Fold:
Amino acid sequence: MDKQPRQHKPKNLLVTGGAGFIGSHVVQRWVTGHPEVNVVNLDALTYAGNLTNLTAVEHADNYTFVKADIRDGAAVSKILREHKIDTVIHLAAESHVDRSIDGPMEFLDTNIMGTATLLHACREYWKDTAEGYAGKLFYHVSTDEVYGSLGAEGLFTEQTSYDPRSPYSASKAASDHIVRAWFHTYGFPVVLSNCSNNYGAYQFPEKLLPLFIHNIASEKPLPVYGEGINVRDWLWVEDHAAAIEVILRGGGLGETYNIGGENEWRNIDLIRTLCRIMDGRLGRAPGTSEKLISFVEDRAGHDMRYAIDAAKLRDDLGWRPSITFEEGLEKTVDWYLANSDWLKEVTSGDYRSYYARQYGDR
Ligand code: NAD
Ligand code: TYD
Structure:
């Protein structure tokens, strides 16, 4: 099986989960940056998927949206054939750790069975085309959380053993193994990446940064889990989308690439920095937003530290983050403050946030 770097050129690209946070950046990048590529966005539009994330491209000639569930094999097969899909970027998933603790089965179903259903449908279609697997690629987007939890030292490399701790990360780990099984067993053309925590525009306001920006703006408490000493490695979402393109085009078949920003922050330090930026933006006296910090019961099985070694991606494919964290965080704050209508719209459906269920609608 070919493991050499190559130049993959998609013609008809299927993005699953394209109405979600990372997916909407991936879709926008391909639709606007590559008019020669037809981009089909397959999304079930769960609470986390919102077409308002894609208004910038919704009328583009090379863009099509199809509402479908990756667990529906017949629907997926039809879409693959109708649009002659040669390349898949698979992002659709249930993605929030707290929700996976509350309700694990949906995570196992979507992330494991959904991925298997999609793989099976792609293989059934691609193996019988005239050119077989030539010119085809299945790109599986995954998380660094599959590697488990680090102590104070060390970084996750592509060789780190899997040790997932939450229902979310376990379901993503299972999906990674299934994708690799398709490569080894069937010679099915795959590439994978495992990325650290993303931040930026269009992130659903249940994850740390958009939730806390919103709560600071509306003077609600900031629930910091445990002592706030857990560490995450933050990456600008558009840099993730750029890395996905670099890997899709040049990554070796069957290979995995870690993606990260070399940007580790203890939660409490990040939250204090955010509070300082927000005080400035909202014209509040220094120290005002920090008073909203409220230490709450720790998340069950809370992974202590994630940190990525992205040397393989940097050395083999030349990718680097494009902006500093300071720039990215300020841009992110400005985007959420300027888009309060977006926030209202995405939280207006039949949806009650994890925050509201846990801490009340205060
Ligand atoms: P998200 O929750 O914002 O978006 C997920 C999207 O998938 C939504 O549009 C949702 O409607 C769609 N979806 C969910 N179930 C579906 C189903 N059964 N069929 C079709 N569509 C379905 O998630 P995100 O943060 O954008 O993450 C995207 C991917 O990237 C996930 O696979 C996640 O594991 C991975 N990832 C995320 C991060 C991060 O920091 N957010 C980091 C690394 C990897
Ligand atoms: P989150 O954005 O949920 O991402 P992940 O769990 O995938 O890393 O959380 C980031 C960190 O912030 C994580 O250590 C948990 C913590 N956290 C809080 O302290 N309070 C909160 O309300 C949330 C949502 C997260």
